[in-house]
Amino acid sequence: MRATHIGRVDLNLVPALIALLEERHVSRAAARVGMSQPAMSRALQRLRRTLRDDLLVRTPEGYRLTPRGERILDRLATAVPQLEDVFAGADFDPSITELEIRVAGSDYAQAVIAPGLSGRIATASPGSTLRFRPWHRDVLTEVSDGAIDLAFIGAQTSEPLRSEELFTDRFVCVVSAGHPLAGRAALGLADYLGCRHLIIDVIDGRQPAIDRVLSAYGTPRRAGLILPVHAAAILALPGTDLVLTIPQRLAGHYASGGALRILQAPDEIGTMTYWMTWHPRLELDPVHRWLRRMVHDTVTGLPEDLRSA
Known about the structure:
It is built from 14 helices and eleven strands. The chain is α/β, with parallel strands linked by helices. The protein has two domains: about 5-90, Winged helix-like DNA-binding domain superfamily/Winged helix DNA-binding domain (Arc Repressor Mutant, subunit A); about 90-309, D-Maltodextrin-Binding Protein, domain 2 (3-Layer(aba) Sandwich), CATH 3.40.190. The chain is rod-shaped. The protein starts with a helix and ends with a helix. This is DNA-binding transcriptional LysR family regulator.
């Protein structure tokens, strides 16, 4: 940490320091930054006290830099352009930037958002990598800690995290073609709660968007099988008496063919609103604003029947 050293330096002296070291002449340095010669001389004296070095020394051939002055000038060759970028607010150019973009979401987000998002990022920033991390109970902590840039979640997060609604999806029930209720178009709540269920372990063995709603009715689902991802659940479902409840667009991805049937879920379960969430320190960051725009463009490009209930 160098805050102690920086804190005792008058940063208004930095333009004078740069001019003195590059011009190696007090009068020319003063003219360069619009100061009088006496003011520049006073600035040189203050710099000498602060840096504990003469910086410029007079010789028969004119002013020369001290060894410390030479080293500082070398460092300024790198530092000054970086400082100019900081204060100029230079635009972010994704086409020439190599990023590792760290996002998190369940395999729902990976199936629905990842294909379109990865394609957009590959086009706009071909040197960058999109890395999806699996969902787990501490994802939001990782968002707060900066380990994840953006998370996708089926609920709005609380402050201080920021959230933006992406789309709404309805739930459907998927059953084996031989299930006793497979001929129905829809399931009522009583029949639904009377079944054994294949539950996706989003958090603590539950699907919060479904189970929080059902908890209001005082009757939890009876789990027959709990699996960590939707794709594995689809493979495990044929030939069982289980009911799998998933967002409609995933049913379109996975539940094709004659082995499964798709039924409307009970009205009480309703729909799921999907969000992206991030830490507020990234709100105005140009890279993160670009990433959020890429996500927004991706979900806007989804077919209309998949973007809204």
